[in-house]
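Hey Z.,

So I finally got round to the adenosine-5'-triphosphate thing we talked about over coffee. Here's the setup:
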Amino acid sequence: MIFSPTRNLAIDLGNNNTLLSDQHTILLSEPSVMVMNEINHKVEAIGEKAYEMFEKTHENLRPVKPLRGGVISDGESAKKMMKEMVHKIGKPSFFTGGFNYLISGVPFDTTPVEKRALRDTLEQFTAQHTHLVHEPLAAALGMGLNIQEPEGKLVVDIGGGITEVVVISLSGIAAFQSIRVAGDAMDEEIQDYFRRVYNLAIGLKTAEAIKKKIGCVFEPVASADETLLVKGKDLIEGVPVSKVISQVELSRVLERPFKQIEECIHQSLEICPPELAGDIYKSGIHVSGGNSVLKGLPERFAKIFKLPVHVDPKALYSVSNGVRAILSSPAKYKAILM
Ligand SMILES: Nc1ncnc2c1ncn2[C@@H]1O[C@H](COP(=O)(O)OP(=O)(O)OP(=O)(O)O)[C@@H](O)[C@H]1O
Ligand SMILES: [Mg+2]
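And the result:
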């Protein structure tokens, strides 16, 4: 007897975080990383457990990050990681007919080859309907915006590998710019700063932790009293040392990646058709993605663009929540499903 499939799955396979949900709730949210055992060629760990092992492994354990710049850069690893993650939430068996709808976000600025790599990753799961949806559109839905009306909406998604800026109207993208400058670039900037200025080597995990704890992108709101003790290795002496960094200093370090992101926003506003620009003047900028929660971002964008700034209070879940909304009524969003 063949059962009809009942399970639907929304996927946000992000550069840094992977989220799996059904139409009701988030089922899994884990870092997009894994560790391979080089002796038996098996997956040693995925997600949170693998992230803890990162930068602390030895030659028998190989850390793997299957995505770069927001897209799959290592297809085989992406397949393995997704297989383990879907297994973790309880993959439907052959007898229950697999998935019904499987909908995954994909950055707007992707090549056909990059889209193919994502489809290949998804094809290992049996599903009646497999679709891709552009992440900025999903993020807009996740933020509760009506993407179907003839009203321009400016969405900026600052993820881990890619920042995408789009103007949405009538379920489509009327103007866009993207840049491979996002969270990873900020972490690298922090790591590089410690090396250049203090001869202090720190890992990327430490750089990211500094950003999350005291990160700020607008000096006027940064606090000089907000400081953090950073531990690393002295590059000259080779011994473990520590250094205190303040939020004010960090806001200067993050200046460069933020200028690049703002240039991207300026360009999309420049190419935006005038009627839609008029709408954006009223509705402002809608910001999503993990790095949008950085302190000072609303004040900084408001000063530079002279527009209202709305940061999604659930910025890490905007795309996932949007794909979930599509899962609940696929027919309504048929126009944006690929
Ligand atoms: N509290 C926080 N403060 C600052 N940055 C944060 C915070 N929490 C997460 N981040 C950053 O958000 C990024 C991850 O965000 P998100 O999950 O939206 O990215 P992603 O979807 O995996 O990447 P992409 O959209 O590029 O594929 C990382 O760079 C992480 O360092
Ligand atoms: Mg994302």
